[in-house]
């Protein structure tokens, strides 16, 4: 069995994430997703997630390409994960190109996949912020809208 591993925060899950997971799974038989813990995101990546670790884990576990979700607690665990989970292929988005080549020393194939160019969590957050600005100018609520076609 060929084992593949990838790492990420996977907050605001979108079709770019699904593309990455589908393509990662196609490189082997078993896909492990190492999901950044809330503490790791906050303390090491200086990133606050919208969804908690448990919520993000639940979303990932519902995706058919994902076989196992485990926590990422620090940058250094990658080397030990390769051995503990008997990994054959390490996969990351190409914005990390070259950053994990040291894992080749562990006997692992390192693959950087191109990202889905038109979508990212950062872009979604930015677009939502812009939409919130426009939305704050509208005072219509669901209670104000008549949906009865006879009235």
Structure, described:
The protein has 151 residues and is an alpha/beta fold. The protein contains 5 helices and 5 strands, in the order βαβααβαββα. It has helices spanning 15-25, 38-43, 53-61, 77-84, 121-135, and strands at 3-8, 30-36, 68-72, 89-93, 109-113. Strands 3-2-1-4-5 form a 5-stranded parallel β-sheet. The model has no long low-confidence stretch (mean pLDDT 88).
Mean pLDDT reading: 88
Number of strands: 5
Range of helix content: 25-40%
User: In angstroms, what is the radius of gyration?
Assistant: 19 Å
Low-confidence stretches: none
Give me the strand/helix succession. Answer: EHEHHEHEEH
Order of neighbouring strands in the sheet with most strands: 3-2-1-4-5
Annotation field: number of helices: 5
Strand content: 15-25%
| Structural class assignment | alpha/beta
Largest sheet properties: 5 strands, parallel
Q: Which descriptor suits the 3D outline?
A: elongated
Distance linking N and C termini: 63 Å
């Amino acid at each position: 069995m060929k084992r593949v591993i990838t790492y990420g925060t996977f907050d605001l899950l979108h079709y770019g994430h699904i593309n990455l997971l589908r393509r990662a799974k196609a490189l082997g038989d078993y896909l492990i997703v190492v999901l950044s813990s809330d503490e790791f995101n906050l303390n090491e990546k200086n990133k606050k997630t919208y969804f908690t670790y448990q919520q993000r884990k639940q979303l990932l576990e519902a995706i058919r390409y994902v076989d196992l979700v485990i926590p990422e607690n620090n940058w250094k665990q990658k080397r030990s994960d390769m051995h503990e989970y008997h990994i054959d292929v390490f996969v990351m988005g190409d914005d990390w190109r070259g950053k994990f080549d040291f894992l080749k020393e562990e006997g692992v194939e390192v693959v950087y996949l191109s990202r889905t160019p038109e979508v990212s969590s950062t872009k979604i957050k930015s677009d939502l912020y812009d939409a919130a600005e426009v939305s704050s100018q509208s005072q219509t609520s669901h209670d104000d809208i008549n949906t009865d076609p006879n009235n």
